[in-house]
Structures are given as C-alpha cells and as structure tokens.
Amino acid sequence: MKYTREQMVESVPQTGFFGHPKGLGILFFVEFWERFSYYGMRAILVYYMYDTVANGGLGMSETTAASIGSMYGALIFMTGILGGWLADRILGSRRALLYGATLIMLGHIAMSLPFGIPAFLASMFLIIVGSGLMKPNISNVLGGLYHKNDNRMDAGFVIFYMSVNMGAFLSPLIVGELQKQYNYHIGFLAAAIGMALALIAYVVFNRKSLGLVGVEPTHILEGEEKSKYKKVFSIAFLVIVLLVAIGIYSGFLTFNTFSIIVTILGVVLPIIYWTTMYRSKDVDDIERSRLVAYVPLFLASVMFWSIQEQGANTLAIFAAKFTQLDLNKVSGIDYLVPAAWFQSLNPLFVVALAPVISALWSKLGKYNPSTPIKFAIGILMAGISFLIMVIPAQSASATNLINPMWLVASFFICVIGELCLSPTGSSTSVKLAPIAFNSQMLSLWFLSNATAQGINAQLVKLIEPLGYANYFLFIGSLAVALFVIIFLLSRFISRKMQGIH
C-alpha cells in the first residue's frame, strides 16, 4: 500500500458531519441518491416489463418479468465480488466507486429512453456492472474514515444505513406517482436524475472530504501476476463474447436459458467459495468446524432472502392485479394508490422496528436466543408472511380485489424476520470466518442473496401452473419446514461454532 491506514485517516477532516468525519456527509448523500435510483427503478421495473406496448411497457409475460427481476438482483450481488477484487488489486475503492456511479447513472438514462428492449438490455448491463463496482466499495471507503479503535465507527455505519432506508422508502413513492401520472420513462428519468445528483456531489466534494482514503489499491497487481491476470481476463472476455454471439445466432440464448445460467451460477459460486476455504491448508480444525456450522445458516439465509426479495416481483404483481388500490372503496379517500408504493413498506418497517428488536435482544440478556435460533425465527417469520397470503389469494380475482392490509401485514411480518436474521448473519459471518479468509467470508454471506434470487428466477415460473394461493402455500411451507430443521439442529450448530455465539 502507498499509504498506511493511519495516514489515510489523518488526511480526512475528522469533524464536519454531526461530530463524525466530514466524508460521512458526502457518502451519506451519494448512498441516499444511489439507493433512491435503485429502489425507485425497481419499484416499477416488473410492471414496465409485463405491461403492454400500447401502455408503454415491453409486453413480456408476467412470469418472464418476475424471472428477469430475480436475475437482475442476483447478478448485482455476484458482480459485487468482482467489484471488490478490482478495487483491491487495480482501481482503488474511490475510482471503483466513481466508475460504478457513472455506469449506474448511464444505465438509468438508458432506461428512461423509449427504445424498447435494446435500451432495457443496455440499462440492465450498465446498472449491474456499476452496482458491482459501487456497492462493496462505498462501505469500504466509509470504514476507512475512522481509526480501527474509534468508537464513532459503529454509529457512523448506523447513520449510513439510515441513508439506505431513506432512499429506499422515498423513491417508490415518488417514482410510482410519476409513473402513474405520466409514464414509465418519466419514472425512470427521476431515478437517473437522483443518480446524477449523487455523482455530481461526489465529483465536487470527494477530494476535500475523503482525503487519501481508498485512492490507491490495497494489494496492487504488479509484475508477472499483472501479466497473468491480463491474459486470464482477456481470454475470459473473448470466450464470453464468442459464446454470447453463438448463443444469439443459434437462437439458444433466450431470457429463459440465461435465467438457468444465472441460477446455476447462484448455486455453484458459494459452493466453490466454501470448498476453497474448507480445503485450504491455512484453515485449522476449529475453523473447519465453524465452516460446517455455517452451511445450515447459509441455507436458512437463502430461504429467507428467497421470500423477502419476492416482494419486488411476486408480491408487486399481486398488488397490481388483485389488490384494491382505490382508497375510496376502502377508506372513503378519493385517491388511487400506485402499486409501486408497497415497495416503501419494507424500509419503513425496518426503520420503525430495528430499535425495538435491538432493545429486545439487550433486555433478554442471558436469555438472548442463540444464533441458530435467531436464524430459525427469521425464516419462520418469512414463511408466515407468505402463508397468510394464502387466505386472500384463494378468492382474489380481477373482480374481487383484496384489502391492501393483507400485503401490509405480509411485509410487516417479513421485516421482523429480516431484523432477526440479517444483522445476525453479517455479524456471524465475520465471527466464523477463518483468519485467512476474513473478507471473503462476508462475500460468501452476500452470495446467499444472489443464490436466493438466482433460485427465484426458476421458482416464479411455478406461479402460473400453481396459482398464487398454492404458490404462497408451497414456498411458505418450505420455509416452515426449514425452520423446524434448523431448530432441531440448533444445538449441533452451536457446538460446531466452537464457542462463537
């Protein structure tokens, strides 16, 4: 490294944002608008894909739209691994963040243009690659603002996390209303403007606010290793281009076949990651035991995110088709609610319930549930959030619209599960990580979401043959069954964790 951590921290103004380093302010602003653009676009994306061309949509089937939505989420998490590697070895976190933000903005601009499928595909590619560069590196830059023993760091990450939820909460409300009042492309344009604001602010203020943090790669490629990776990436790029060209020319590469490829990657990548760690000579027997304990926790996480992430496709479509959105028929208020507004429920409930769940764990003290039990509770809540939807789904139709409070309740219950499992999972991944694979273990944790969404790309294809009621029953029952398994294995998992709680 060109600079030590101490030199980088000392280059940052250590006050200027509510008692925190000045750089937290710019990162807060950038992340708010990046999340605004991401969640705003995602709130109407599935509707844009399956709506008719006459209404400004792409005219896909609902199944294809839901499957592509899942592929999109899976690939964003997968490219985050490459984005972290490029920052560490070649670009540095700051340049990776800048390039990523630029690509995301261009992706949203492409989506705002009325050029159909070509613009849609270009947008997806740009946002996926851009998010892969930006998502892991903005958090890395944030951590670099503080000395390791600075007791402000945890509070800084809490403030930063609030920017995520604020952007995620506001964007569906604004973008959904714009889409309803005007059209899809105006909604996507709002997301593009949000990302442009983030990029402008970063370019103007990053040097003065962030100092030397993340300017240089931490483990730069040099000499023979640099030549080796150039050859590897060049060959890989040419092979991918060749395969894509052959696939398109032969008609083999369709949305369906690509979804299968993404699903396979989602399953194979974490297996490779885990096997590499388990078989490494740098991992001792205690660390291997902890890796074994991590397997059922990882599977529980996949099950949870499989349900949670369907809020943006399966529940989003259900909200638009079978939910009473005319408030005049529910509460006497003359207003038609945009279906996209339901996407604001998750961040709203996260902000409202996070302090409650945190206080509950603290109050329980020695009776605080073990890590496996918290994971079990998480997937149980997720399962219940789908199972309660069986009741309204049985009678829901285009002429018999359900009360929107069913969806509100489903999102609420799932968020309880999220707050039990998600923070615990991040912390446990760090605690169980072998010393030699400390950072890669957190990458493995993020892959649980990629695996879940990769699997969802296939699961959502069951909605049409099963119907919504049976689909909710099937997925919810799977979660409850896994809850029982994790609960019964909880003591075994705890023992394998070798003293980690």
From TrEMBL:
Pfam families under this entry? PTR2
GO-annotated biological processes:
tripeptide transmembrane transport
Show where the Major facilitator superfamily (MFS) profile domain sits: 26-494
For this UniProt entry, which segments traverse the membrane?
Answer: 32-50, 70-87, 96-111, 117-134, 155-176, 182-205, 232-252, 258-279, 291-308, 340-361, 373-393, 468-489
What InterPro entries does the record tag this protein with?
Dipep/tripep_permease, MFS_dom, MFS_trans_sf, MFS_Transporters, POT_fam, PTR2_symporter_CS
How this chain sits in the membrane, per its record, is:
Multi-pass membrane protein
Keywords (alphabetical) are: Cell membrane, Membrane, Transmembrane, Transmembrane helix, Transport
Q: Per the record, GO CC terms?
A: plasma membrane
Q: What is its main location?
A: membrane
> Which SUPFAM superfamilies does the record associate with it?
MFS general substrate transporter
Q: Which GO terms describe its molecular function?
A: dipeptide transmembrane transporter activity; peptide:proton symporter activity; tripeptide transmembrane transporter activity
Question: PROSITE patterns recorded for this chain?
Answer: MFS, PTR2_2
**Cellular localization per UniProt:** Cell membrane; Membrane
Instruction: Spell out the family assignment given in the record's similarity comment.
Output: Belongs to the major facilitator superfamily. Proton-dependent oligopeptide transporter (POT/PTR) (TC 2.A.17) family.
**What NCBIfam families does the record tag this protein with?**
yjdL_sub1_fam
Q: What is this protein called?
A: Peptide MFS transporter
State the species of origin.
Macrococcoides goetzii
